[in-house]
Amino acid sequence: VRRATIKMLPINLGLKKRSRNANLILCKTEITRDLLPAKYRDKSVLFTDVAVEKSEHAVTAQKTENNRIEFITVGRLDAWRGFDLVIESFARAAKDDSRLHLTIVGKGSDKVRLTEIVKRLKIQEQVTFTGNVSMEEYYSLLGRADVVVNASLKEGAVTVSFDTMAMGKPLICIDTTGYTRYFSNEYAVIIPRTSRDEVIANMSM
Fold first, then answer.
1. What's the CA gap between 162 and 109, in Å, rounded?
2. Torsional class of 75: left (φ above 0), alpha (ψ -120 to 50), beta (otherwise)
3. What is the rounded distance in angstroms from the CA atom of residue 47 to the CA atom of residue 38?
4. CB–CB of 177/31 below 8 Å?
5. Taking Cα atoms as reference points, which of 3, 185, 158, 163 lies closest to residue 82?
6. Which residue of 71, 103, 124, 144 shows the fewest CB atoms closer than 10 Å?
């Protein structure tokens, strides 16, 4: 239903009327902006609705010395957030390095399927599901991580990614044309949104 609604936006009379009447249109992503009637796009600006406050967590977070290389991914466990892509790409990378560990923070309706994927790939010893955690524990986990991964397929703004920036952690993410505009290849790996197999291969490199 959601996909059908989006495809029908170019002929949606309500959207056309609102675009005509608007003085300013805020869009999270270029994908969204491209859905506006062409003659009204000059009224639009790309705009994120997420920001992080500089805090003591960003300043004091330190990596705990150990032999593990810690990857972390955070969010509600919904199918469109790409946690399955993270798990499958991690499994490929883990074949070549037993030190790799993945922590998945959050809960949601997709957890059962994700757990089955982990079992199928036989990486239970290298993947930890924490469920929901307190903000204090969240910052602690993020601070100890070596790399943060966000494989969300359609988000315009992601709080954990901005927290990653504040902590100076490297980020791997999929290009949604939204929040990824704020990251560069100097400290992030931005994966193009191509086929599933290509995305998994690129994330595992």
1. 25
2. left
3. 19
4. yes
5. 158
6. 124
Say how far apart CA 166 and CA 199 lie, in whole Å: 26
Distance of alpha carbon 149 from its chain centroid, rounded? 7
For the question of whether the overall pTM of this predicted structure is more than 0.70, the answer is yes
Amino acid at 139: Y
The CA distance from 72 to 53, in Å, is 21
- The length of the chain in residues reads 205
Residue spans of alpha helices (H) in the chain:
2-7, 13-21, 30-33, 56-60, 83-94, 111-120, 135-144, 159-167, 196-204
pLDDT digits (tens, 9 = 90+) for 12-35: 899 999 999 999 999 888 888 888
At 116, which amino acid appears? E
Tokens standing for residue 43: 């009224």
For residues 203 and 146, give the distance between their C-alpha atoms in angstroms, rounded to a whole number.
Answer: 15
Residue 188 vs residue 186, higher pLDDT: 188
